[in-house]
Design goal:
The complex is a heterodimer of chains A (about 350) and B (about 80). With about 350 residues, chain A is of the alpha/beta class. Helices cover about 30% and strands about 15% of the residues of chain A. In chain A, strands 6-7-9-8-10-11 form a six-stranded antiparallel beta sheet, covered by helices on one side. Chain A is elongated and about 80 Å long. Chain B has a four-stranded mixed beta sheet with strand order 1-2-4-3, covered by helices on one side. Classes of the chains: A alpha/beta (about 350), B alpha+beta (about 80). The complex binds iron/sulfur cluster. The site of iron/sulfur cluster has 11 residues of chain A, from α4.
Chain lengths: ~350, ~80
């Protein structure tokens, strides 16, 4: 790969960075901007990003600010262009079959990074940037941000020598943009390890105050509860596939699998009920007749006995839970049915049913 | 003004999909064209103005109708 800045050396050097909106990627942008480099950014939608927006499903907490998209707001503050790219469809094969395996949960971090870097490179070529960069810090994350994984990312993404990591560049071999004098290596950083202190000091120096806390984590695949639900889905479908609807629904509601042939997704508040009601297609729904209570989605095709069990469980989470009988309406694509059932007492809802 | 706007239904989509759909919808349009985005994600209130400012579009209006957030955007140059 030989990418030359070309004839027009009078224009500023242009760099394309991966921007999550977290502190590290924000700082990486600033470090390059300080050198007079023109920065543009890309942010990828994998379908698993934990934005505070997931809170968009539930009733808002009193006085809570509406959620916001971190990368978009970082881009606004930094004054850079942001290309938002939906990679969720292609990303399925990364999640279901990662060459380098999973981290602690279902996070295929190394494959994910390689994929994103390769995509960023395509965009760089398309839009005429000179090189790409990330806010990675050596030793920061156990799976993907290690001294021995950086070369793997560069090699497998096909960008050897062209991916700059401004926050730890001084520990890395010189990259092409440094060799060509486009970037001043002296002004790059030497951050390593898990300490956040150098980043925080640099943020202060740049007067960056409004950044998301790293504790939130960046993706659902690293979340134990979420990963368990996805595993469950794969196990009972006998296949590692998933649809975009599947992964959204794993973020909403209470998930119970009382039998192998069906699963229930039960709304936990009004807002969530409303959200779930947008996913009726291809599923059955359960609601109490003439009584307030949760909206429940049923995935699978249980027999009548299974439906009655499902209704008893759904009734347990509604206003009628202490009644001797409640009528539940089950609707499917072929019609609807009503079952009058005894709401299941709390102690009979088996712990193992909760996915 | 919203009479002539192209309407984009982004209801029940989670962030950042309403914005990604808006980007797709606005790309082929001429400068000055208006799109009206309907979403249920309350984050649109923050994200639509931010997206406009990053991309040089103009936010004409943002309002709530029940659960739905409606934003009007005019494509910038
Ligand atoms: S945490 Fe998620 S988004 Fe981040 S590198 Fe790992 S798999 Fe990719």
């Amino acid at each position: 790969m030989s990418e030359e800045r070309g004839k027009d050396a009078t224009r500023p050097v242009r760099a394309l960075g991966l921007l999550s909106g977290g502190l590290d990627s924000t700082l990486a942008v600033r470090v390059l901007q300080e050198q007079g480099i023109e920065v543009g950014c890309v942010n990828f939608h994998t379908g698993f990003c934990i934005q505070s927006h997931t809170g968009a499903i539930r009733n808002p907490k009193k006085g809570a600010e509406p959620p916001r998209h971190d990368a978009l707001h970082a881009a606004q503050t930094l004054g850079v262009k942001l290309h938002m790219v939906d990679i969720s469809e292609d990303y399925v094969r990364i999640v279901t079959n990662p060459k380098h395996g999973y981290g602690k949960n279902l996070n295929p971090c190394l494959d994910c990074k390689i994929f994103m870097v390769a995509k960023a490179w395509e965009l760089k070529e398309e839009l005429g940037y000179d090189f790409i960069f990330t806010g990675e810090v050596m030793g920061q994350r156990p799976m993907s941000q290690r001294k021995d994984t950086f070369p793997v990312i560069d090699r497998d993404a096909g960008v050897r020598g062209w991916l700059l990591r401004p926050l730890c560049a001084q520990y890395m071999p010189e990259t092409e943009p440094e060799k060509r004098g486009w970037v001043d290596r002296e002004k790059l950083k030497n951050f390593t390890g898990r300490s956040r202190k150098p980043q925080m000091a640099l943020a202060k120096a740049f007067s960056i105050v409004d950044y998301p806390t790293p504790a939130g984590g960046c993706c659902f695949l690293t979340d134990e509860n979420y990963a368990r639900k996805l595993q469950d889905l794969w196990q009972f479908r006998d296949s590692k596939a998933y649809s975009m609807e599947d992964i959204v629904l794993l973020k909403a509601g209470r998930h119970l699998r009382p039998r192998g042939d069906f699963k229930l997704i039960i709304g936990r508040d009004e807002s969530e009920n409303h959200f779930l009601s947008g996913f009726k297609a291809g599923r059955m729904t359960i609601r109490a007749k003439n009584l307030p209570g949760p909206f429940t989605l049923l995935e699978g095709s249980p027999d009548k006995e299974g439906l009655i069990l499902a209704c008893r469980i759904a009734a347990r989470y509604g206003k009628g839970k202490n009644r001797s009988e409640v009528t539940m309406v089950v609707e499917g694509e072929t019609g609807s049915d009503a079952f009058t059932v005894i709401p299941m007492p709390a102690h009979q809802v088996e712990k193992e049913w909760h996915v | 003004m919203s009479d002539s706007a192209q309407i984009l239904d982004a209801k029940n989509l989670l962030c950042p999909l309403p914005i990604l759909r808006a980007e797709q919808a606005i790309r082929p349009l001429a400068v000055g064209a208006v799109i009206e985005i309907h979403a249920t994600d309350p984050g649109l209130v923050n994200d639509l103005p931010a997206w406009c400012s990053v991309n040089g579009h103009h936010i004409l209006e943002i309002r709530h109708e029940g659960r739905v957030v409606i934003g009007l955007v005019k494509k910038g140059a």
